[in-house]
Amino acid sequence: MARTNKAENQNKKHLKLQDNPPFALVESFRNLSTNIGFSVPKKGDGRGRVICISSAIPGEGKTTVSVNLAISCSGAGERVALVDCDLRKPSIHRFFNCEGTSTLVDYLSGEANMEKIVAKQVSPNLDVICGRKPAPNPLLLIKNERFQSLITALEKEYDYVLIDTPPLGLVSDALEVAKSTDGIILVTRQMVSKTPVIRQTVSDIEFSGVDFLGFVLNDYRGKNDSNGYYGKYKYGYKSHY
Ligand SMILES: Nc1ncnc2c1ncn2[C@@H]1O[C@H](COP(=O)(O)OP(=O)(O)O)[C@@H](O)[C@H]1O
Ligand SMILES: [Mg+2]
C-alpha cells in the first residue's frame, strides 16, 4: 500500500485493515487478537470479553489500534462492538459510516436509548458506537450508571467489546471506563513513547486495581524494516516490563 495523500490521511483510511493493507500488518493484528484471546479467558456464562485500549499520551495509536483490532477480530468471525469512549476527542466516526445514529454522549445523557446509538454491521460482524463532538463533562458522563448498563448489555450480545479511550497520563477517564471492563491494553509507539512514562502509567493502572493485560508496540520498525510508513504492531505481556 503506497503512502496516501493529505486528504486521505485526514480520513485515516490508510490505516484501516480493510483497505488492502500489507500482509505483515494483517498478520500483526491477527497475532494481537489471538494473544488477547489467550490473555483474557472466555467467561463461563457466555458474556463477551470487554477490553479497554489506552496509552499514556495522545498520538500513540489508541484509535488506530482499536479500529484495526476490531476489524481483525470481526474478520475472524467474532461478533465485535467497538465503542468510542474518548469523549474528549472522538474519532472512530472517521473510520466508519455512523451517520443516522445518535452518539454515546446522547445515550449517557439520557437523550437516546441503546438501539439508537449502535451503527450495525459497518462491516461483517462489526457494530460501532461513535461520538462526534467533544463532550463538556466526560468524567461525569462515564460515572453515570447508564455507562455500566451499556457495558452489561453489550457483553451479553458480543464476543468482544473494544473500547477506545483518552490518554491515561492526562485524564482519569480511561481508568474510570476500565473499571467496568476485563482490563486495559496499553498502546506504546516507537520513537514516541518514553520508558519512564510507560512505567508510571503501568503502575497507575495497577494501583487503580484495573487489570493490566499487556501492551501493543505500534509503529515498530526493525533495522531492515521493509514495511515503510505503515510500520508494524507487536503485542507483549506485562511480564516484558
Ligand atoms: N503504525 C502507524 N503507522 C503510521 N501512522 C500511524 C500509525 N499508528 C498511528 N498512526 C497515525 O498517528 C496519528 C495518531 O494516531 P491515533 O490512533 O489517532 O492516536 P491516539 O488515538 O492514541 O491519539 C494518526 O494520524 C494515525 O493515522
Ligand atoms: Mg484517539
Q: How would you characterize the overall build of this protein?
A:
This protein is of the alpha/beta class and 241 residues long. The chain has one domain: P-loop containing nucleotide triphosphate hydrolases (Rossmann fold). Helix content is 35%, strand content 19%. It has 9 helices and 8 strands. It has helices spanning 6-11, 23-39, 62-75, 104-108, 114-117, 138-143, 145-157, 173-178, 195-208; strands at residues 49-54, 80-84, 118-123, 126-129, 160-164, 184-189, 212-220, 232-236. It has an 8-stranded mixed beta sheet, sandwiched between helices. Helix 9 (195-208) links the parallel strand 6 and strand 7 (212-220). Helix 2 crosses helix 3. The longest helix is centred in the N-terminal third of the chain and has 17 residues, at 23-39. The chain is globular, with a radius of gyration of 17 Å. The two termini are 33 Å apart. 45% of the residues are buried. The model is unreliable at 1-14 and 226-230 (pLDDT under 50). Adenosine-5'-diphosphate binds at residues 12, 15, 55, 58-64, 91, 218-219, 229-231.
What brief labels describe this structure?
241 residues, alpha/beta, Rossmann fold, 9 helices, 8 strands, disordered N terminus, binds adenosine-5'-diphosphate
Class from helix and strand fractions: alpha/beta
Count of alpha/pi helices: 9
Q: Which hetero ligands occur in this complex?
A: adenosine-5'-diphosphate, magnesium ion
Number of strands: 8
The CATH architecture classification is: 3-Layer(aba) Sandwich
Beta-strand residue fraction: 15-25%
**Helix percentage:** 25-40%
Which superfamily, in CATH terms, is the homologous superfamily? Answer: P-loop containing nucleotide triphosphate hydrolases
* Strands ordered across the widest β-sheet: 3-4-2-5-1-6-7-8
CATH fold-level topology: Rossmann fold
Alpha-carbon distance between the two ends: 33 Å
Count of individual domains = 1
Please give the CATH class. Answer: Alpha Beta
The 3D shape can be described as globular
Query: Would you tell me the overall average pLDDT?
Result: 86
